[in-house]
């Protein structure tokens, strides 16, 4: 519906919006596809690239979540990088799962799934491309560069 200026009005855009059920279904499909592809990493071990620096050979991480660890995450870099949220999330994983790699991978896939849904919702809102947005988001979620869902140490791309 166009206003007197010829541009679509908010009322016109609201009418074209898909139902909440359809949007929820699209989000569920995106999450399901993400888990179908990356859920298999729950059975994998740590990656021998740099997970040892970031997780299982890092005493400040393996001790789990503590006030000293949180302060250290904000005041010190490790493995040549400073990303406190990533460090704190690894500490929390060690607190919850110990050094079982599957738990750490679970967190990565969960964060990646949240990113999938958030990008879908942002694209839907910004572009008003309700039919293209799930396709774009699904393609991005399975992109080969999505290593953050596969490597524990690549979580800095998620946090």
Description:
- With 159 residues, this protein is mainly α.
- The protein has one domain (25-157).
- Helix content is 60%, strand content 0%.
- The chain has 8 helices and no strands.
- It has helices at 10-16, 20-38, 51-56, 59-62, 67-75, 84-97, 101-127, 132-141.
- It is elongated, with a radius of gyration of 20 Å.
Q: What integer value in Å does the Rg equal?
A: 20 Å
How many distinct beta strands?
0
Distance separating the two termini: 40 Å
**Could you tell me the mean pLDDT?**
80
Helical segment tally?
A: 8
| SSE topology string | HHHHHHHH
Overall tally of domains: 1
**Helix content, binned percent:** 55-70%
Instruction: Outline the biggest β-sheet.
Output: none
Précis, in short:
The protein is mainly alpha-helical and 159 residues long.
What keywords describe this structure?
159 residues; mainly alpha; elongated
Describe the protein's topology.
Layout: H1 10-16, H2 20-38, H3 51-56, H4 59-62, H5 67-75, H6 84-97, H7 101-127, H8 132-141
Helix pairs in contact: 2-7, 2-8, 5-6, 6-7, 7-8
């Amino acid at each position: 519906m166009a206003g007197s200026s010829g541009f679509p009005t908010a009322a016109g855009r609201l009418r074209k919006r898909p139902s909440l059920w359809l949007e929820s279904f699209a989000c569920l499909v995106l999450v399901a596809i993400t888990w179908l592809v990356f859920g298999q990493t729950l059975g994998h071990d740590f990656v021998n690239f740099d997970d040892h620096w970031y997780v299982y050979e890092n005493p400040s991480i393996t001790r789990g979540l503590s006030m000293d660890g949180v302060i250290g995450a904000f005041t010190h870099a490790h493995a040549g990088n400073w990303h406190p949220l990533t460090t704190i999330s690894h500490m929390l994983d060690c607190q919850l799962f110990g050094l079982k790699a599957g738990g750490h991978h679970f967190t990565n896939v969960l964060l990646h799934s949240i990113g999938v849904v958030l990008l879908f919702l942002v694209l839907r809102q910004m572009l008003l491309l309700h039919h293209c947005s799930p396709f774009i988001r699904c393609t991005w979620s399975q992109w080969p560069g999505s290593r953050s869902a596969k490597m524990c140490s690549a979580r800095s791309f998620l946090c």
